[in-house]
Design a protein that fits this description.
By secondary structure, this protein is α/β, with parallel strands linked by helices. The protein contains five helices and five strands.
């Protein structure tokens, strides 16, 4: 991968996060928009990897997938309710601005 990070937001993330990222010119897809509602977390992670997207989630199960060394293009995790939506968007925008997609492969970042 090269260029700028593209994000995929799982179904537990508010659509307001995607809207905030897009207002900043950041490529972000969501589970509902991609007709992926109800699929397993592993399938979500595979979709993100196959589309070279870093997944943003608030679902603890993705931490287990990372720990099990399931290949992925990167996971950004935020515990549900621990950050305001604006803070999440700003932090993801900073990651987008400063981190290369190649540097996220297989990595887990906490916000």
């Amino acid at each position: 991968m090269s260029g700028l990070i593209k994000f995929h937001l799982d179904e537990n993330v508010s659509n307001a996060v995607a809207e905030g990222l897009r207002r900043r010119g950041i490529d972000a897809t969501t589970t509902p928009e991609q007709n992926l509602r109800g699929i397993s977390d592993l399938e979500q992670l595979t979709f993100a990897r196959d589309n070279q997207r870093v997944i943003f989630t608030q679902d603890d199960d993705f931490l287990k997938l990372h720990q099990a060394q399931v290949p992925h293009s990167g996971i950004v995790y935020c515990h549900q309710g621990s950050r305001a939506l604006g803070e999440i968007v700003k932090t993801l925008a900073l990651i987008w601005e400063w981190v290369e997609p190649d540097d996220m492969v297989g990595q887990l970042e906490f916000i």
